[in-house]
Amino acid sequence: MIEAKGLTPRQFLDKVLEPDKESDHICWNCEFLKPVIKGSSFPPADIIGWCMKIHWPYYWCVADFNVVKKCYAFKQKG
User: Fold this and answer.
1) Which member of 46, 54, 59, 60 has the lowest number of beta carbons within 10 Å of its beta carbon?
2) What is the mean pLDDT of residues 61-74?
3) Distance CA 72, CA 53 (A)
4) Is residue 69 part of a domain?
């Protein structure tokens, strides 16, 4: 059981929803990345998640092989 006391809603979801894979992609540390959840069979294998800020309401797919050095929508988690 996850201890929910003292956690923000975002921190709670980060603990409950386990991502399918880890990455060193710049988007991985962004507040707006919605990662692919473990056990999900929908997205292609190279997708690590979706950006909820770029191209709203049609989210931008983030692939592990895309090289992103800087992003105007980047906001550090925390």
Assistant:
1) 46
2) 86
3) 10
4) no
More confident residue, 2 or 63: 63
Domain that holds residue 53: 9-63
Looking at the structure of the chain, the number of domains it has is 1
Question: Cα–Cα distance between 37 and 20 in angstroms, integer?
Answer: 5
Of the candidates 43, 54, 13, 44, which has an alpha carbon nearest to the alpha carbon of residue 68?
54
Tell me, what amino acid is at 57?
Answer: P
Q: The tokens 């692939």 sit on which residue?
A: 63
Q: State the distance between the two ends of the chain, measured CA to CA, in whole angstroms.
A: 23
- In angstroms, rounded to a whole number, what is the distance separating the alpha carbons of residues 14 and 9? 9
Amino acid in position 8:
T
Establish if 1 belongs to a structural domain: no
Given a contact cutoff of 8 angstroms between Cβ atoms, the answer to whether 75 and 30 are in contact is yes
